[in-house]
Write a structure and sequence with these properties.
Layout: E1 5-8, E2 14-27, E3 33-41, H1 60-69, H2 79-90, H3 92-123, H4 126-129, H5 132-142, H6 154-157, H7 162-171, E4 178-181, H8 191-201, E5 207-212, H9 218-230, E6 235-242, E7 262-267, E8 288-293, E9 312-316, E10 319-320, H10 322-334, E11 340-343, E12 346-347, E13 360-361, E14 367-370, H11 373-376, E15 379-380, E16 386-389, H12 403-414, E17 420-424, H13 432-437, E18 444-449, H14 454-466, E19 492-497, H15 511-522, E20 534-539, H16 547-558, E21 562-567, E22 575-578
Parallel strand pairs: 4-5, 5-6, 6-7, 7-8, 8-9, 9-11, 10-12, 11-14, 13-15, 14-16, 16-17, 17-18, 18-19, 19-20, 20-21
Antiparallel strand pairs: 1-2, 2-3, 21-22
Length: 579
């Protein structure tokens, strides 16, 4: 039968004895019947836990055996029995689910409350409480934009959030109205699409455009030009740098430039420009126009324009012809409010421009730059204040000998009061002193020469002597104050010579020149008489001045005169003798 086992406790004492209790048999595959039994404790007391002192829980294995014995034999249970057995266990599943769900409810409520708090905090943040109008004003005043640069400006602001995107793309058309297509435009992957998007988002705003055609592939440039032409009715401030062959396409915008206020046309490169561009004849709001020619060998292109709004006209080319002269006079006639006129071209043809028999009277022009005596002889400018004779860049050829005589005729016929006179590459050996005697209000006299000659030097020596003459007779009392006979109001005198080597040195820079500066600096200032304050002398390719002159110039500086005399033996720069 069965043996009786005695179990010793962990403390080495005789413990509880067990006896088997039969539950059933299971027949194995080899025919051996295995009895399933469970040992019963003979003692009623549970086996105590040596760690916590409580009764030990039944082994999980014993629970599995109990579940297995419940089938009452080695015969497989019926389907109904198995189903009922499973159903009995499944009855406890819903209650477990309910308990789990009940335990999760507090956590779900806490998460929901936290989510609501976060949403409320975001919704009530100060930046979200600002009205749309505030954002519009901030963006309009605080953003420096180029709508063609997709890496900056409104393109970046539109990526911040949906609200900002709506404001930027819908309510801020002004941020898309400045389009600068410059030399770096080739880096854009799709410049045509970028330009179209910017134009669409600019709404009906006035457009500020700069288009540099030479930086873009030819076919792409034509596409972009066509897009710009389609919105030419919104052009306001435009700079076009085009190939000569593209100038003729500007005719499509004629009559559509109702908003245009400033226009700059630059053209250079391969190709022949048209003889006439009529795109700007009908421009009621045009305030200034600038025509820049990079190559002076190009044919003269006439750009007729003129309106009551035109205040500044500049034709930046060195050579012209009779047609350009006539077009310029026509512009003056059609522009009653013209204030500044730059046209320093030389007539390079064999046909000389002729002055008008009757001078054109313009009471609005205050600034005039020209090299043509025919233009000076065709105008009467009573409001003229500044005259610039010659180009504004170095040139090897002097203006014609009749330029200064024509200026004298203009001054006497207009009865104007010049305050500034600039002579650049002008032959001053004719009529310089008479011109200066008719400009008593002249405040600034500037002269620029690419090279020097003996006739020019002699004229400067005569000017220095004339500036030392006094209105008072020599026999007057020595205590009589000095009153200049010429240029009494002169405060600024500048002269720059880029090459003195042809004559060796500038002879007019001598002791007499120093004395003239001293007299002009120390004379009493009253009424129309003003002291000389600023003097600048710059000589290149010239020998160094003698030491005595340098000391005299330093002494003049001690009187408070802003004196700069710079001398250089090369043409690359000048070494300042005095600052």
């Amino acid at each position: 039968m069965f043996r009786r086992y005695e179990m010793k406790s962990r403390r080495g004492q005789v413990g509880q004895s067990f006896k088997p209790k039969t539950f059933g048999y299971i027949e194995c595959s080899n025919g051996v019947a295995v009895m399933i039994c469970q040992w019963e404790r003979e003692m009623a007391a549970p086996y105590p836990c040596t760690v916590y002192g409580r009764d030990s829980t039944p082994s999980p294995f014993s629970q599995q055996l109990k579940s297995l014995v419940d089938f009452q034999g080695n015969v497989a249970p019926s389907s109904s029995s198995a189903a009922s057995h499973l159903a009995e266990h499944l009855q406890h599943v819903p209650s477990v689910e309910i308990r789990v769900e009940a335990g999760l409810i507090p956590f779900e409520k806490e998460n929901h409350i936290s989510s609501l708090k976060s949403q409320v905090k975001v919704a009530l943040s100060p930046i979200r409480l600002l009205p749309t109008e505030i954002f519009i004003e901030v963006f309009r005043h605080g953003v420096v934009v180029n709508a063609f640069d997709s890496s900056k400006g409104p393109w970046i602001l539109a990526q911040v959030c949906s609200t900002w995107r709506e404001i930027i793309t819908t309510h801020c058309p002004g941020l898309w109205s400045t389009i600068l297509i410059e030399i770096c435009a080739y880096r854009c992957q799709d410049p045509v699409s970028i330009l179209k998007t910017a134009l669409d988002r600019s709404g009906q705003s006035d457009l500020r455009i700069k288009f540099w055609e030479t930086s873009i592939e030819e076919y792409t440039a034509k596409q972009m030009l066509n897009l710009l032409f389609e919105v030419s009715n919104r052009w306001s401030n435009v700079i076009l740098d085009l190939q000569p062959c593209s100038l003729s396409s500007l005719s499509v915008v004629r009559g559509r430039l109702d908003r245009l206020s400033s226009m700059t046309i630059k053209y250079h490169g391969i190709g022949q420009p048209p003889s006439r561009i009529d795109a700007f004849e009908i421009t009621p709001l045009l305030n200034d126009i600038n025509i820049v020619v990079r190559s002076d060998h190009d044919a003269v292109t006439i750009v007729p324009c003129g309106s009551e709004s035109l205040q500044a006209y500049r034709n930046d080319r060195a050579y012209g012809d009779v047609d350009l002269h006539r077009a310029l006079l026509d512009t003056i006639l059609k522009s009653p409010n013209l204030n500044s006129l730059w046209a320093y071209y030389h007539n390079c043809t064999t046909t000389a421009s002729r002055p008008l028999i009757t001078r054109i009277n313009s009471t609005s022009i205050r600034f005039l730059q020209t090299s043509e005596s025919a233009l000076l002889d065709s105008l009467s400018l009573p409001a003229l204040e500044t005259v610039w004779l010659g180009p504004d860049k170095p040139c090897q050829s002097l203006c014609s000998e009749d330029t200064l005589p024509s200026l004298l005729h203009l001054i006497t016929s207009s009865r104007c009061s010049l305050t500034r006179l600039v002579l650049a590459e002008v032959d001053i050996s004719h009529e310089l002193i008479p011109v200066l005697r008719h400009t008593p209000m002249l405040d600034s006299l500037e002269m620029y020469f690419a090279w020097w000659s003996n006739p020019l030097d002699r004229t400067m020596q005569l000017l220095v002597t004339a500036m030392m003459e006094s209105k008072v007779a020599p026999a007057a009392s020595p205590a009589t104050p000095f009153r200049p006979a010429i240029l009494p109001g002169l405060t600024c005198f500048k002269i720059e010579i880029r090459d003195v080597s042809r004559v060796g040195t500038a002879l007019f820079i001598n002791d007499m020149f120093v004395r003239m500066l001293s007299i002009r600096r120390t004379m009493p200032a009253d009424g129309d008489n003003r002291r000389l304050q600023i003097v600048t002398v710059s000589l290149s390719k010239s020998p160094v001045l003698r030491t005595g002159l340098v000391s005299d110039f330093e002494a003049l500086q001690q009187t408070g005169m802003d004196l700069t005399v710079s001398v250089s033996e090369s043409s690359h720069g000048t070494d300042p003798i005095a600052h």
